[in-house]
Amino acid sequence: MRTGKLSKHMALALSMFLGLGAAASASAQEARIAAVNSDRILRESSAAKAAQSKLEQEFSKRDKALQDMAQRLKAMSDNIDKNGASMAPTDRAARQRDLAQLDADFQRKQREFREDLNQRRNEELAAVLDRANKVIKQIAEQQHYDLIVQEAVYVSPRIDITDQVLKALAAASPGGASGTSQN
């Protein structure tokens, strides 16, 4: 197990900084601090990978429909470019109106797709982070950590418990430890 320990003086300074004030003394226990890389949790955890698969499955039909619509748009545009000079002006104008209408529909559906996908992705990632935070809290309580941070400019590998959190998340999720990677 990799954890960081602070000297008694650092623990006193940290406790005073955190507002614990005079209650801390030089004879206080050393503070146990750890860090978790949330980005790795969202990239590597089996829960995050399952959420990504769920989103891909949920949105694949709409994505395929958009791809088909884009191909129709390109074919119509190519046809007008290729044959437009030889078309009657009214026919060419009608095809250009149809193309403009299809393009407007495509743009609207594409925007709705992105908005829906982003909303669902945010919901799924929030659920993954909620599960991760519960696991982190359990680890903190079981291993008597005083502080676990998730966002930091720098984290020493000796206090990084991300691998431990990934393993605990995998063990807690249906299907066990499959789908996690360790870096």
TrEMBL record:
Residues 1-28 form the signal peptide. PANTHER family: CHAPERONE PROTEIN SKP (PTHR35089:SF1). Coiled coil: none annotated. One of its GO terms (molecular function) is unfolded protein binding. GO terms for biological process: protein stabilization. Gene3D superfamilies: Skp domain (3.30.910.20). The keyword Signal applies. This is Outer membrane protein H. Keywords: Signal. Residues 77-98 are annotated as: Disordered. It comes from Candidatus Burkholderia verschuerenii. The keyword Signal applies. Belongs to the skp family.
